[in-house]
């Protein structure tokens, strides 16, 4: 049975989903169909991934009722600002072949994200989004927006894995009733992730892999996870994390792996900001 977390507006969201970042538009439909057949009921996409159509097709063809599948998408930087964001939300719904999205996020904290958020609040009130939130908002920008908006963000999706555990940002989000969601739960294999001795030793006790142990650690901390794989056997492995629990001692040991910094890119580095803004212009 899939565990869920309750968002601050009462909407139940699966704690484990399937992410389609870097899944090609050609492969996306097949991958999402596989994920749904395994039992995943939460799919995370974005305008910038150029694969919303694949998600929409797979959900449509699956025969699973739309209300049974939790779909997340994100508004990209180039669609920022009230008018553009508003038009892009409708475009995303068209591609997803749905009247609504379950969770709508601002993908990056750049350009006119206040205007974007106003368009999202409006979409929420109109029933086009069941929940709204943010992605990649560091504590300073997160607090700024959370203090100055009408509808508190329900989710903030940030880089979260055993080497960057986001414990302090998570506490700050919780003050606003905002749930933390992880992207890159396996750190994309960086820092020799899959050969980590601590995760191997702990996983071995339960007959679980490094990946399963890492996901379990995040889930027990109340972190929503969306591991991505294009291989069905990996999707199955990532799904099998609800039949064991880590002890307090295990959790403590994994907490010791935290380096408290990004293994990818820093959103407060001016050069990175410039690069991100120029990505999909």
TrEMBL record:
Keywords: NADP, Oxidoreductase. The active site is at 49 (proton donor). Belongs to the aldo/keto reductase family. InterPro entries: AKR, Aldo/ket_reductase_CS, NAD(P)_OxRdtase_dom_sf, NADP_OxRdtase_dom. Signal peptide: none annotated. CDD domains: AKR_AKR5F1 (cd19133). The record marks 74 as: Lowers pKa of active site Tyr. The keyword Oxidoreductase applies. GO terms for molecular function: oxidoreductase activity, acting on the CH-OH group of donors, NAD or NADP as acceptor. The keyword Ion transport does not apply. Pfam families: Aldo_ket_red. It comes from Odoribacter laneus YIT 12061. Residues 22-258 form the NADP-dependent oxidoreductase domain. This is NADP-dependent oxidoreductase domain-containing protein. Substrate binds at residue 107.
């Amino acid at each position: 049975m899939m565990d869920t977390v309750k968002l601050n507006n009462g909407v139940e969201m699966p704690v484990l989903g399937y992410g389609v970042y870097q899944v090609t538009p050609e492969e996306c439909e097949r991958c999402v169909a596989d994920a749904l057949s395994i039992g995943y009921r939460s799919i995370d996409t974005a305008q910038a991934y150029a694969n919303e159509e694949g998600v929409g097709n797979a959900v449509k063809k699956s025969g699973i009722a739309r209300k049974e599948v939790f779909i997340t998408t994100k508004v990209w930087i180039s669609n920022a600002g009230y008018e553009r964001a508003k038009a892009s939300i409708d475009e995303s719904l068209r591609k997803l072949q749905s009247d609504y999205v379950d969770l709508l996020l601002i993908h990056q904290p750049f350009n006119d994200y206040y205007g974007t958020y106003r368009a999202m609040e409006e979409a929420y009130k109109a029933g086009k989004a069941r929940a709204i939130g943010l992605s990649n908002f560091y504590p300073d920008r997160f607090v700024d927006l959370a203090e100055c908006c009408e509808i508190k963000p329900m989710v903030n999706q940030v880089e979260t894995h055993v080497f960057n555990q986001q414990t302090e940002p998570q506490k700050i989000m919780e003050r606003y009733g905002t749930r933390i969601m992880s992207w890159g739960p396996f750190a994309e294999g960086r820092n020799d992730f899959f050969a980590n001795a601590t995760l191997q030793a702990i996983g071995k006790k339960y007959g679980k892999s490094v990946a399963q142990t890492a996901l379990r650690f995040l889930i027990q901390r109340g972190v929503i996870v969306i591991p991505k794989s294009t291989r069905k056997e990996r999707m199955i492995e990532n799904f099998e994390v609800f039949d064991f629990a880590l002890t307090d001692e295990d959790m403590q040991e994994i907490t010791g792996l935290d380096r408290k910094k990004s293994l990818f890119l820093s959103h407060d580095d001016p050069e990175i900001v410039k690069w991100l803004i120029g990505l999909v212009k």
